[in-house]
Description:
By secondary structure, the chain is of the alpha/beta class. It has helices at residues 19-34, 97-106, 118-131, 155-176, 191-199, 214-226, 262-274, 294-312, 332-337, 347-354, and strands spanning 6-11, 37-41, 55-58, 86-87, 93-94, 111-116, 135-139, 179-184, 204-206, 232-237, 249-251, 257-259, 278-282, 318-323, 326-331.
Amino acid sequence: xxxxxxxxxxxxxxxxxxxxxxxxxxxxxxxxxxxxxxxxxxxxxxxxxxxxxxxxxxxxxxxxxxxxxxxxxxxxxxxxxxxxxxxxxxxxxxxxxxxxxxxxxxxxxxxxxxxxxxxxxxxxxxxxxxxxxxxxxxxxxxxxxxxxxxxxxxxxxxxxxxxxxxxxxxxxxxxxxxxxxxxxxxxxxxxxxxxxxxxxxxxxxxxxxxxxxxxxxxxxxxxxxxxxxxxxxxxxxxxxxxxxxxxxxxxxxxxxxxxxxxxxxxxxxxxxxxxxxxxxxxxxxxxxxxxxxxxxxxxxxxxxxxxxxxxxxxxxxxxxxxxxxxxxxxxxxxxxxxxxxxxxxxxxxxxxxxxxxxxxxx
Length: 362
Ligand code: F6P
């Protein structure tokens, strides 16, 4: 194995809180622990397409105490432009993977740390295989759906933001005798909805993993009324479908279609069936920002240090993971293959049911 002197780092996919804390940990460990140089590649894999490649040397002078506490990523990121199926302005698609690999070569890097969710890690792995790049992965996503790790960076902060939203909605719901519907992100997994719903005292939680009937919600509201409750809190994950099975999507400027809007559908149906007054909050990208929670900063620090150690140990094509209070590493391919949605028979669903929360199916 060649000697390591200079490593690259990039953040890919949707940003989240805690990414700067990972970058900070990597730079500390690599420069102080091993005397390596660290190069930050800009805008995820997109930076590798520019000539000269968009990148900068990262050193400890950057980390004055602010970045640990700051959401976003100083390197920039992208969740568009699969290098193997890259969209051109005329609508056609081309394979630009060789250009990206050439960009990586131009930086003279001995290894790469890629911070991404399952989609980004799959792309990075394919690039690494094709270009012989020594890759170590770090899982990050507010969706918390990366397999083989109990923790992904960004989830804890998103969960905090969604729970706090319920804290803010409850008093106004009670003051106006309303049903408040909170739509949260999570892509195809209901982790944020389920955990925030439990933590924030929701009465109903709808997740894509459990089919629902509006009548079940109506029954829950009736029970609440009988107990003297004049309001209800409903959390809906963005990938929940309409009763006829359609996904609800929105078109964002400059990007393809993405989830968004199911909260309005659910609120309208609640009003139709129960006559209740409803209001909808779509939490959206607020969940990706905010000051990273201590948990996200801690895990970012653990993962960043461990990823550098993995390079020193020659443990490539692997992802850092958290399991039973230990930082371990697993094959990236296995992590991608074990996509982690909510387990309808798992402990959190059991907890929600134990609390009397309606999941729409009873
Ligand atoms: O994967 C993270 C995530 O925030 C999802 O929860 C959400 O569906 C999506 O990204 C939004 O993507 P964009 O940043 O393109 O709007």
